[in-house]
Amino acid sequence: MKQKLGFTALALMFWMTFSGFSIKPKTVAQMTTEWQRAKEFTKEYLDAMPEDGMGYKPTPEIRSFAEQMLHLTAANYNFTAAATGKANPMQGKKLETMDELKSKTALTKTVMDSYDFVLEGIKGLSDAQLAENVKMGPREMSRETMFAKAFEHQTHHRGQATIYIRMKGIKPPNEKLF
């Protein structure tokens, strides 16, 4: 069994090396499509949670539903500002603590505005610029990688919101991979 597994791994490495296999960088068009889908998916989450669920916390020590979404929002702004060099319109604001953003209407607008900032930031770049390195704090990475990290972050927190919605007795939106 070990021999068969070893041979399979060796064959796969050989194929990847000599077949021209590569992981191609994403294009602005591809990233725009993915972020637009993420925006629509997040909107479905915001729509699913009723007004009385905005302050809902499954346990006292964790973020409320609104705070989860505002945390996602702040990160969308921070990552995009770092990736594009555009000024962060929310710089210095602690969104999670701003009670005026925690109604369903205000929260939805604020979250959707953050996705618009991401989308405008991506569309303002060329495919070549996505490969350029930028800094975020002590870390340096390509703009594409920075947007990938932002995408991972918003996916993580939207995923956490699934539990909040379920605990309120509501079926969360279906997965939206494509």
Automatic annotation (TrEMBL):
> Where do the TM regions start and end?
none
Could you tell me the keywords of this UniProt record? Metal-binding
Residue sites binding a divalent metal cation per the record: 71, 153, 157
Gene3D superfamilies in alphabetical order: dinb family like domain
Organism's domain of life? Bacteria
Q: Protein biosynthesis: present as a keyword of the record?
A: no
* UniProt entry tagged with the keyword Nucleotide-binding: no
Molecular-function annotations in GO:
metal ion binding
* Family recorded in the similarity comment: Belongs to the DinB family.
Instruction: Spell out the protein name for this chain.
Output: DinB family protein
